[in-house]
Amino acid sequence: MKKQYKFLLLFMICALLCMGCFKASNIEIVSQSIGIKIPESINIAYEDSHGGFLGDGETVAIIEFDESTGEEIQSEILNNKDWYNLPLSENLNLIMYGGKKNNMNYAFNLAEKLEMPVIENGYYFFFNRHSDRISRKDDSNIFDQHSFNFTIAVYDIDTQTLYYLEFDT
Predict the structure, then answer these.
(1) What letter would DSSP give residue 29?
(2) What pTM, to 2 d.p., does this model score?
């Protein structure tokens, strides 16, 4: 009997070690999520607070590139149909910066979590993962959903900075 427990314990340790070996890097996670290949960055700040039973939380990443790498990123974005020219849609702007619409105040201000200024020159990516969505790219009914489950990324051409947010409530 003890031999079986030792084998089971050894198997569990090996499985945990293997899972750690195959974990994707932060850059790979962001890259796969937004559909562009991200080369090595100058600087990356990454934080993930997801956890608990329902997996609520936020993944926040700020990736700064040098000028030549920034041009590569811009080229990747231009060749990807899931990225759009700024400005953000009205709903996404309310989520990111807050504001008022139809006599209702929206105080989400998620841009503050990203330390993201108002960006005028760049591109954005939006992916709605909520089950009540109209489509993955459409944010028109985002305020009608009972929770938020989306990914948004904004690329600032002027500073060659990518801001990434995965938001789950």
Answers:
(1) H
(2) 0.82
